[in-house]
Amino acid sequence: MLRFRYGPALVRRAAFTLADVFILLALAALFYAGVRLAFHAPGAIRGPEISLSVAALPWYALLSLGRMTAAYALSFLFSLAYGYGAARSPAGEKVLIPLLDVLQSVPILSFLPVVLLGFSAVLPQKLAAELAAVVLIFTSQAWNLTFCFYQALTTLPDELREASAVFRLDPWLRLKKVELPFAALALVWNSMMSWSGGWFFLMAAEIFHVGARDFRLPGLGSYLQVAAGAGDLGAIVSGLTALVAVIVLLDQLVWRPLLCWADKFKVETVQGDAPPRSWFYDLMARSALLARLQGVMAGSSERVDRWFHARYAGRSWAGLEPPARPGLSWRARLAAAVVAPCLLYGAWRAGVMLTSLAAASWTAIGLGTLATMLRVTLALALALVWTVPVGVVIGTKRRIAELLQPIVQVIASVPATAVFPLLVLVLIRAPGGLAVVSTLLMLLGTQWYLLFNVIAGAAAIPQDLRDTTALLGLGRSDRWRVLVLPSLFPYLITGSITAGGGAWNASIVAEHVEFGGRTHATLGVGALIADATGRGDYPLLLGSTLALVGTVILINRQLWRRLYRRAQDRYRLE
After folding, report:
1. SS (H, E, C) 18-80
2. Residues 218, 242: contact at Cβ < 8 Å?
3. Confidence of residue 300 (pLDDT cuts 50, 70, 90)
4. What pLDDT score was predicted for residue 193?
5. Which residues constitute the domain of residue 484?
6. Which of 161, 179, 462, 536 is deepest in the core (most CB within 10 A)?
């Protein structure tokens, strides 16, 4: 019978730690600093007019694609550095993973007005808006990539760890030859999900209102938002058509070739029956110019390897894990001595700001948080019901994947915020009204985190293990019990954490909607955040945001983090 071996026991964390308290204080302090800086921003800001002409769509598409690319490049580099630091430093993990839980739970739409106004106080308006848009898209792309890479490093099979030690690979070669190839397939699928998440927040990133200030950037997101505000269904359809065209091109020219390339890194001893195919990948493989470029890059890569080898001389991985450093360095202690008073002062001033909230506001925050939590739970449960079987089919059946993968990629990349005005128009008078429609939007915006992680997990199941279950004559239920579900477990936890964080973020645009000149809102902490942002009510904005962040941290600590540890302990594929 196939088994997933137990790894070394890992220490369980409490619901809240001292690191969490420090991070929350830092968050409140940074919010207060941003608010103080925002007071110096111009009192009235008006961005350029957004044309609804179809002729403007190609230029708008290029602008949006540029912002998405810049944000993704930052997200990918951040994910590699952050995930590696958390997985390879036992001391750093104690701070970096709680911080990552906070970062992925912070609703960026709460902090975007502070970031925008803060940038506007010190930078030209256009540059401030561009930087704020890239920051918002970055925060919708980075967290699932980081969790994915961290999960890959912490579930690396012992055989690969031992091979690294036997060949005395230094940290750079271990990352290049072992860890990145092992994580490649999951990183490609989560990169597709990151782009889908970026499209989701594109409308909010390119047009944002803070009181009398109207930030606008030309792009597909602003085009769709202006079209939705005007109730122009023709313009909405044109904008969606342009967006789908961009998504299809990316699928054919980027993601499908990357999947073909990453398939060779699967951990298996028997090749699958039908590896993924891509006409563009085959075309590039026959290119003489690309072959010459690869030769030039190979020489550069060797020089980089020699530089890192000299830097890490004598620091090969003799064991399975690097030793933990005892205590903090004097530089870290000096930095803490300088930063801590500033953070404490900022946190105290933020606390003073919160005291201006009336009891009725705190009651509304509590009830809104509970209502949003129920919608997030329902959306996550509904997503799990269909993403697991569909993801397994796409990840294991090559011929079906060739048909369904581009369809799923296109549907997932179409931002739910773009089609939400149509849903509001059709369903707003249905029983439940916006309370039901907002749950549907959360589902549309977060189910893809689960689906893409399930596909990555199913595609990573070695072909020899599938053949073994067939030879043993295991039935469908036994095959799922002993192979499929244990293999998927780490990917399901990663997908659930990022999907949950995405659902909480999506609540801000799901519970407070403007369409055709009218505002529709329902009970929820997301609606409170959106309303406070529009009115410039910073105390309510801070209180609602901290309530949302605290709730997500508690859920992560009490549920997802424990399941994550179980995945590392028990369900490491050997």
Report:
1. HHHHHHHHHHHHHHHHHHHHHCCCCCCEECCCCCCCHHHHHHHHHHHHHHHHHHHHHHHHHHH
2. no
3. confident
4. 80
5. 35-286+360-570
6. 179
